[in-house]
User: Fold this.
Amino acid sequence: MITISAVSGEPLDVTEHLRAVASPSAGATALFVGTVRDNDPDAAGRVVLLEYSAHPDAERVLGEITASLDTDDVRLAVSHRVGDLAVGDVAIVCAVSSVHRAAAYEVNRELVERVKAELPVWKKQVESDGASAWIGLGGLA
Assistant:
């Protein structure tokens, strides 16, 4: 069951995602929270900001990704944020619950990897000296 599938300009609420997948039948919940960090191996300086932008079809694509992983055995909640995110801000939340931990782990990992590879959301990485670079261009193949 898909409980949340959203691309949003608003801050993401981790607790909301956990509540959305909670169920009396769920014995396991796997959670991934991606946050903006102050470093990147390819950056010359300290990262201070990520500017996320999305294709107008991004939310539809996220829904398709989530639907492809939806089974009777899991509950899914996923959101990706767009806009300007400072170091420490939450960029993505994926929560998956299941009767057993194996399915929760596997589906959560697959969901995160597919969002990273397929979602048409791009980020511009800004460093402390003002230098910037586009990172992770992809999606809508």
The chain has one domain: 2-135. The longest helix spans residues 101-118. The two ends are 27 Å apart (CA to CA). The mean pLDDT is 95.
